[in-house]
UniProtKB/TrEMBL annotation:
GO molecular function, one term: isomerase activity
Protein name stated in the entry: FKBP-type peptidylprolyl isomerase
Transmembrane regions listed in the UniProt entry: none
Record's keyword terms, sorted: Isomerase
InterPro entries listed in its UniProt record: EF_Hand_1_Ca_BS, PPIase_dom_sf
Keyword Lipid biosynthesis in annotation: no
Originating species: Flavobacterium solisilvae
Length: 338
């Protein structure tokens, strides 16, 4: 077969594959986000009420703060995840715009240990270990008696403490909402070159499918699956999304650990320049190269131009406008700039 024939053959096969994909996708109609969330929440709560947990405490070892979930047998006296008090069940509630609908989600999570170090914000990078399980319903019939159980099945595990995850746009939404609730720990190098981690943040999150993969099946995870993640936060890496020289976590103006690019027309608490509307959006400082909207780049305003050589001020040393300004750092005050 000559080269032209091979090319034509390849184009034909590729076209057929694309056509099949398009046809398959066109026949699939996504479920309603709100209705699916109600189903997911019910399954998550039933799982938490019908399973108990065993926590492994083994400081300095890879299995420290591992969690094992086990179905409570009929007549069993084990205390469920829902009712146990060693690690009180906590919730985080958020509203998510899915385009055609907006859903108010409740995320259940457990703090096995908060951690002793730095706290990430939801746009940082984290070095973390995890184990993932999906929740599903299983129906069985024995002696004409049909029963339905809510169970969990592990789909993945990663114990490598050097694995980096991007909380802003690189992971599912549930991760970026829960990791800021934890802190990093400490670590030391052993004589054999391995690293021991201690006092790191560890916990469990129970995620509705709308904060995970929703209608998309992912590897062995069925579509519309609520997920359980047991997580360990070993270390973090600060980011600078807009490249203005100020780490994004320092542009979290209300210090709550969460920053978002909000939907059109919604005022953003992490935006300095309230008059800076672009296409109806208030751009938060961590995505805005000109935080105060004065026409001067933030990266320019935080430089010490009188020094030789010129350098960028550390954040704590960025000057204000003094008596002529309002006490804000000069990159946040549109009346003050170099």
């Amino acid at each position: 077969m000559n080269i032209l024939s091979k090319i034509l053959s390849f184009i034909f096969v590729a076209t057929m594959l694309l056509s099949c994909d398009k046809s398959d996708n066109d026949t699939v109609e996504l479920r309603d986000y709100q209705e699916q969330y109600i189903t997911d929440l019910a399954n998550i709560e039933e799982y938490m009420k019908t399973h108990y947990m065993t926590v492994v405490s083994n400081p300095g070892q890879p299995d420290d703060m591992d969690v094992i979930f086990t179905k409570i047998p009929e007549g069993g006296s084990q205390v469920s995840v829902w009712d146990q008090t060693d690690y009180p069940v906590q919730t985080r509630e958020i509203s998510v715009d899915h385009g055609d609908s907006e859903v108010s989600y409740k995320i259940y999570f457990l703090k096995l240990r908060e951690g002793s170090g730095k706290k990430p914000c939801n746009v940082d990078n984290v070095f973390a270990g995890y184990r993932g399980e999906y929740i599903y319903k299983e129906t069985t019939t024995v002696d004409n008696v049909t029963t339905t159980e809510v169970l969990g099945k592990q789909f993945e595990e990663n114990k490598n403490s050097q694995t980096k995850f991007l909380l802003y746009g690189g992971v599912i939404r549930g991760w970026s909402e829960i990791f800021p609730q934890f802190r990093t720990g400490t670590y030391s190098e052993n004589p054999d070159g391995t690293i021991s981690h201690n006092d790191f943040g560890a916990g469990v999150m129970f995620l509705p499918s709308g904060l995970a993969y929703f209608g998309t099946s992912k590897s062995t995870i069925p579509s519309y699956s609520p997920l359980i993640f047991t997580i360990k936060l070993f270390e973090l890496e600060r980011t600078d999304q807009d490249g203005d020289g100020i780490p994004s976590y320092l542009e979290d103006l209300n210090g709550d650990g969460y920053m978002y690019l909000l939907k059109k027309g919604v005022s953003n608490i992490d935006n300095t320049d309230e008059a800076d509307e672009k296409d109806g959006n208030y751009i938060p400082d961590f995505l805005d190269a000109d935080d105060d909207g004065d026409g001067y780049l933030t990266s320019y305003e935080i430089k010490n131009l009188s020094a030789t050589p010129i350098y960028t001020y550390p954040f704590d040393e960025i000057p204000t406008c003094g008596t002529s300004g309002n006490g804000k750092k000069r990159h946040l005050d549109k009346t003050c700039h170099n």
